[in-house]
Amino acid sequence: MITESIFFLFVLDLLAFFSIYSILNLSLNVQYGFTGVPNFGLVFCVAGGAFTVGFLSTRLAAWIFSIDISGLNIIDDNLIIVSKINAVIASQPFYGILLLIVVLVFAAVVGAMLGTLFSLPAVRLREDYLGITFLAFGEILNVIGIAYRDLVGGPPGVNVPDVWAWASGWRFAASTLTIVFIAALIFAYSEYLIRTPFGRVLRAVRDNEVAAAAFGKDVARYRLAAIIIGSMIASITGALYALYSACVTPTFVRFHWTFLPWLMVLLGGVGNNLGVVMGTAVFYTIYKLIIYYKFALAGVVPFDVVWLNYILIGIAVILVLIFRPQGLIPEKPKKMEQT
Amino acid sequence: MILLVELVTLREAITYSCILSFLAVGITLLYKTTKVPNFAHAALATLGAYVTYSLTSLLGINPYLSLPVSFLIGGLVALCLFFLVLEPMRRAKASVTMLMIATLAFDIVASGAINAYADYLQTTFKISARNVSLIRMDFQIASLPGVFLTSITLIAMTVILLYLLLNRTYLGISLRASMENQILAETIGINTTFTLMLSWFIAGGLAGLGGTLLPVWTQIDTGVGMVFIASMFCASTLGGLGEIYGAFLGGFLLGFAELLGTVILSKTLGTWVIPYRPVIPLIILSVTLLVSPRGLAGILVRRRSK
To answer: A307 in contact with B at a CB cutoff of 8 Å?
Structure first.
């Protein structure tokens, strides 16, 4: 019975993270796969979304639910306030869902602003300048999160209201289902996006910038639009991750939130949404199993096994780049209406 | 006029600028020869720092004696990156973005290996390998720390040697020729693969040198290079990504702006600004790209042509 429930939780967790990464990878696919923007700073917007949740959700919930927090410090007495909010959500599911939606909308707005902020300097320049700017900005929000305590409580982080508190025993099932649902929505959206005239311009910008410009398309504006859409989605990813784990710490590292998405997109097939989702499924399942069974290796090697993970995953990316740069499922030419 | 910065701060700023210049000049050189921003440069610096730390703490030698070893190892690892990863991709006509992600992947591999090595040092040799420093091993002349004197001497030597190599030797001239126009250089019989290898070796070696100075100057960790990644790319861009000597200028301007700026701001606004220091290179990078994407070199060249 116990092993069964552990297995159940493992599968739920796998599904939740598969969906979280699918959303993030679709965001990268909109930016890199469709438009050719080398976003090496995905982690910037992911952290932005998570910090939005960390900063806003407690304050917003206390305000909307009119919970008395006079005399309490929002950071120091974080645990007390969050448990008060959770008690309200536990009795009224509507409040939980409302908070979830409001916070996600805010995260998307913040994502759009952050995306504009960090791409504006380089969006008119060549792709390598964009890549440098993205990489340089990447982990900066951690610095701010650590230094500015009011944001997410400094290095130890803050707890976040559990918007699924109403599901009590089925909390993980409810949260996973919500995330899967949002991932499906975003998948449908990016499939729709690529079929619109706008999506065709994005691909034109990627394939031949000069030709796109010759047809009167403002290349920089289309790039910026793709970055903003992608940043909003990345920010929603961060927000969902924060809500799912019910806490936010300023520890968003490039490896997990930029490098792994790149690996999964390259593996699945650049510019192919379905391929990206399948790449995510294949990679993340293997990755999760490796983490789960890595204790088997502990003691055999004279270092922490997590570094072996880094080495192997880095080598995997290099091998994919050298031997199969088009990914497992390459982009198919889209059918055009004949005139 | 109040003296806002002490001489100590100025000295620190100069040392930091030298270290940044060693890293920035490598980035610029590689960008010029291979047309790719090398994101693994930070890992090369960390590697240099750990080479020095292990040699000094295991063999008990003077940290500066490890300079040639760091140069060699940094250069060889950079050659590995070029030969095993980038060259096959270049032959398959990979895009710049693909090359960039490959250098990022190499950085992940290298940082995994460095971390594993740090664990190995801790478990096998029982010496701490994280948040360590060699400042106490440094010498002093006239109450000036050795790292300050060494970094100034090294940077002067590097500029002179680089100038002599690039302007006075056949090898350097063919390197410059292949920077300017690879196909044309090949047609007159220059082996461009060899000149590329040379540029990767020099750039990696200089990153190793910069890394060697780190443990003598400050505390190092397995992510020490990554702390400076924004600063080194900013320095390189500020100097103009295509201008070799611009990287030195960029390194010094950014080093001064970062250290003196933080000190001056903390004295005028309060000490709370100190943790925000990493924001400074980002602001300078953004402004540079908005005003003159080709860096200071771009501004100077424009003046000259008018």
So the answer is: yes
